[in-house]
Structure formats: structure tokens, C-alpha cells
Amino acid sequence: MKDGEVIIVDEHTGRTMQGVRWSDGLHQAVEAKEGVEIQNENQTLASIHLPELLPSV
């Protein structure tokens, strides 16, 4: 929790992931549990996997 919103913390780096939200209602459930304003769920328009970004060798 930070400034009245649920912030995800990266489990590997310990860094906060501003602007990232869990999907499928999970983030809204945590917001409800914590008693903060429930935000609308984000819609994923496109996704790409890391191997697709790297050039073939």
C-alpha cells in the first residue's frame, strides 16, 4: 500500500511496479480487502514474449 493504492512489488528485485495491476479481478479483490477505492480492470490490447524481442543467433 502506498498513498491509498495497492502497489505490486517485484518478488525478484524488490522494486515497486508502478502502473502494473493483477488481472482477472485479483487486484480489485486486494483493493476491496485493503479498503481503498476499487479501480477498473485494465484491458490488455497486445502482448509479446521476451524470446520474440531477441534476435535469432
From TrEMBL:
Pfam families: SecA_PP_bind (PF01043)
One record GO biological process: intracellular protein transport
Transmembrane parts of this sequence: none
GO molecular function (one): ATP binding
PROSITE patterns on file: SECA_MOTOR_DEAD
Top-level division of the source organism's lineage: Bacteria
Entry keywords, A to Z: Cell membrane, Membrane
Residues of the SecA family profile domain: 1-57
Coiled coil region boundaries: none
One cellular component term from this protein's GO annotations in UniProt: cell envelope Sec protein transport complex
SUPFAM superfamilies noted in UniProt: Pre-protein crosslinking domain of SecA
InterPro entries in the record: SecA, SecA_motor_DEAD, SecA_preprotein_X-link_dom, SecA_X-link_sf
Protein name stated in the entry: Preprotein translocase SecA subunit
